[in-house]
């Protein structure tokens, strides 16, 4: 929306990062089977531009698991509003720590089937 634009009229990179963090956080919570909080965001690039009104899709994959953490790659792809053309507009890596009911980090305990690539 227009409120999410930079002074030049393009979609603000910070808004894209926030949408990517939401997508990656959803995957972290599902794979980790509980609360997950982002602790770092790295390796961001914005190779394309997104226009106001474009549709955004965020795709995420688990890159690594640690004792209490998940590292997740995220890609943001924009589809033009009135067509089918798509553009990679952002990519980056998030690290999440899983949190227990006591508010402290907890072991990952990942269901390995959630980490396998999906077959068509």
TrEMBL record:
<comment type="similarity">
    <text>Belongs to the acyl coenzyme A hydrolase family.</text>
</comment>
<dbReference type="InterPro" id="IPR033120">
    <property type="entry name" value="HOTDOG_ACOT"/>
</dbReference>
<dbReference type="Pfam" id="PF03061">
    <property type="entry name" value="4HBT"/>
</dbReference>
<protein>
    <submittedName>
        <fullName>Hotdog domain-containing protein</fullName>
    </submittedName>
</protein>
<feature type="domain" description="HotDog ACOT-type">
    <location>
        <begin position="1"/>
        <end position="102"/>
    </location>
</feature>
<keyword id="KW-0378">Hydrolase</keyword>
<dbReference type="InterPro" id="IPR040170">
    <property type="entry name" value="Cytosol_ACT"/>
</dbReference>
<dbReference type="InterPro" id="IPR029069">
    <property type="entry name" value="HotDog_dom_sf"/>
</dbReference>
<dbReference type="InterPro" id="IPR006683">
    <property type="entry name" value="Thioestr_dom"/>
</dbReference>
